[in-house]
Amino acid sequence: MTMLLIGQGDPELESRLSDELDAINQSAIASDDETPFSIRLTDDGGVLLGGITGWTWGGCGGITSLWLESEQRGQGLGSRLLIAAEDEIRRRGCDRAVVATMSFQAPGFYRRHGYQEVGRTPDMPDGTAKHHFYKRLSAVDPADSVNS
Q1: Which residue among 5, 49, 65, 98 is least packed, with the fewest CB closer than 10 Å?
Q2: Which residues form the N-acetyltransferase domain (predicted)?
Q3: Is pLDDT above 60 for 143?
């Protein structure tokens, strides 16, 4: 007999499902080079002010999370993080990037940085939407790289 066990968060299940789906993906797609990346933005004392995380896989890079402390916003630091991530994605041999953001977060930010909206999930909580973006990246120019 089979059973459904419903509960709250389950890190063990999440890890197993991720591993199983990764195995399916690797058998279906020739690229097996999925690699995460992270970029921290800190003050002189090492206090975290923001950061960006993502991944590269099969010529594509993805932004998972980009966050800045509220006091740090509006100073160009988000752009600096995004440019650094795009540089890292290119450095790894990728020529495109994807990201998703909620309507109350940063769709305008990604549009300003050349991302094209390729989809939208409507009817999210409180009438919001999830926006899906794509950008074709030009070849990396080491002279244009942002210093960490």
Answers
A1: 5
A2: 1-140
A3: no
Tell me what pLDDT residue 126 has: 96
Report the SS3 class of residue 125. Answer: helix
To which H or E segment does residue 12 belong?
Answer: helix 11-28
Beta strand 116-121 pairing with 60-68: unpaired
* CA 35 to mean position of chain CA atoms: 12
From the number of C-beta atoms within 10 Å of its C-beta (0-12, 13-18, 19+), residue 81 rates as buried
Contact 79, 113 (CB under 8 A): yes
33-140: CATH class: alpha beta
Q: Is the pLDDT of residue 7 over 50?
A: yes
Sequence-ordered list of residues with C-beta below 8 angstroms from that of 30, at least 6 positions apart, any chain:
58
DSSP state of 140: P
Contact at 8 Å (CB) between 34 and 55? Answer: yes
**Vertex 132 angle, CA 83 and 72, to 5°:** 40
